Amino acid sequence: MRLRSYLVFSVLLGSFTISAQNKELLYDFYEIPQALMVNPGVKTSEKWHVGIPVISGLSFQGATSGVTVNDLFANDGIDFTTKVQERVLDVMTRKDDFSTTSQIEGFTIGFRGRNRPDDYYSFGMYGETDVIVYWPKDLAILAFEGNGGNNIGRRFDLGDLNLRGEMVNVFHFGVNRKMSNTLTVGARAKLYSSIFQFQSIKNSGTFRTTEGQDNIYVTSISADMQLQTAGVKGFYDILEEDTGTTRKDVTSLFTERVLLGGNLGLGFDAGFSYQLTPQTTITGSVLDIGFIYNNKDVWNYTFSGSTSTQGISVYLPEDIDNLDNNLWQELIDDIDEALPHGENTSSYISFRPVKAYGSIRYDFGEGGNNTFDNCGCGVNAGGGGNQDFYRNSIGGQLFMMKRPRGVQAALTGFYQKRFGRGLSLKTTYTIDKYSFTNVGLGLNLQAGPVNFYVLGDNLLSYANVADSHYAFLQFGFNIISWNDN
Amino acid sequence: MKRSFYLLLCFAVVLMLSQSCTEQQDFGQFEDLSITPTLATGLFYMESDEATINDAGTFGTFYAQTVNFDAFNEEFVADHLIEGTITYEIVNTTSKQLRITIEYLDEAGNTLDGELFNIDADPSGLMTWEVAYGPGGKSLDILANTSNLRLTATNLSDAISVSSQPEPKVKFKSAAEFLFRLK
């Protein structure tokens, strides 16, 4: 029991050390090949690139719009229950969430078409874990305070339970085409291989205890709730059996699911970059428009119905001859019957969290020489209007993401500085539901063919990471060529 | 010069990323978390019209029933109950003086505790009794060992009088409000 409590608490609170999916630093940072993953239509200048397997792209994000680790676990001498009451129960709303996203790029390769130098092809594989748990405010208050005392008459919203999570391996292939000196478009097809998925996102209902017309209290419940899982039970069963081969069995099942042995899905990304003027560019992209069809290892739990009870009731003279003394058990049976709950293995479709980016960039400060003189980048290579010529960029970005409770948005202002071919920096300021003080910094370093990049968000919080509402770190290594060497 | 500045800045940032820190956290505080909800529920409701009381005759018992009641001795309740109050409310609009008793019985049928309510004839008004269990009140063991309830309702008046109230009835209500320690 205690272990289970720790696990639940760890999932809820630990999630914000690693989370939201906005990659505002990477977006349109076209010196980094992984920028293709957030806009397939980003301007590409490479001849080819190869990500160093497993370490070409590692990203970890964690966010909480409500309480932080430090709010609860700081060694401040304040009673822990008081902190939970004042910093969680009293202030967090059903719109607050804990979320986490991590990505590990298995491999990525990009190359320019031999016969069509306008096209840049890229393919690869990456794993992604994404979990979001909305704060179940009413259920938490019900658990901490109960339905009695001041909560008589309160309507507890069962729809406050809302969570979604998945681990998926993605195989992708994308084409980036320079249509003209001003327009680049791109698209990427994705094949999703689900490792596990769970969601409980369409719950509704209420639980309420009021003063009754007959008895002192009447308790009413109306519920339509469902938890859908796919791929979870297989792992659970292995862990539950706890045989001597548990680790091997988990690894084997994980590997099978990674390599298309589990539930599969399809999706695509699309994007563009358009140069309005020689110095002004607009971009946009949509990512993960796709779904996974979950029909293997499915286990769902449902709970629905409605009833009310005021306890055991006897009405005379109607019940005068009822000598049955099992009234309590009958009451329990009646409630069970009115609130059917059960398990099923029905297939379901889960949609990927769709993301969209848009940006406008203004380039200035002529550098005197083209950063990518030797690029094999087709129709707009070497043109006088190539914005790579400019050493500075400034602009704004908009990010939107479909979440179970609606669209989550973030607005970013950025400044980018290029120091020749070898080094470029990008700094961002982002506002979203998690933070109004999110300043990020990204660095891209090119040493010969070796490319290294590191992107870090919410730097002001690094003085005390535990007090951060948002943390993001991404880094990776690539080999890039701009010519035939 | 400018280049050196930015390179320095760059290394400073990398250094900062690697040297980020956090204030000391004490995750052991979780052990101190106290979760004590108050749960409220209706328990037992009985109502009778005046004709049924008259049918029982003078000093007759018009309702006597022992019902199985395992709500309190469920393992969860027995293990987590800290204290509680059982509230009884009686409204009598009949012309009868009544006596209602409720007894808490263990599995073998032995009486663990009981309450006796003498009710005046109409107008009795709303009569309320609150019985506390736990510290300062009756023993929680009574609740934890209760397996049956016996309710007995007796007419202490004649068998012919009729109240002038429309639809005269006696209503016996009860509810529990218990404080649990979940953690």
Can you put this structure into words, describing what you see?
The complex is a heterodimer of chains A (485) and B (183). Chain A contains seven helices and 22 strands. Chain A is an alpha+beta fold and 485 residues long. Chain A has one domain: Porin. Chain A has a 21-stranded antiparallel beta sheet that branches. In chain A, strand 3 and strand 4 form a beta hairpin. The radius of gyration of chain A is 27 Å and the shape is elongated. The N terminus of chain A is likely disordered. By secondary structure, chain B is of the alpha+beta class. Chain B has a single domain, classed as Sandwich (Jelly Rolls). In chain B, 19% of the residues lie in helices and 42% in strands. In chain B, strand 4 and strand 5 form a beta hairpin. The relative contact order of chain B is 0.29. Chains A and B meet through helix 1, helix 2, helix 3, helix 4 and strand 9 of A and helix 1, strand 1, helix 2, strand 2 and strand 8 of B.
Number of domains of chain B: 1
CATH architecture of chain A: Beta Barrel
Tell me the greatest interface: A-B, 63 and 61 residues
- Mean residue pLDDT of chain A: 87
Largest sheet of chain A: 21 strands, antiparallel
Radius of gyration of chain B: 30 Å
CATH architecture of chain B: Sandwich
User: Regarding quaternary structure, how should these chains be classified?
Assistant: heterodimer
Brief summary:
Chain A is built from seven helices and 22 strands. By secondary structure, chain A is of the alpha+beta class.
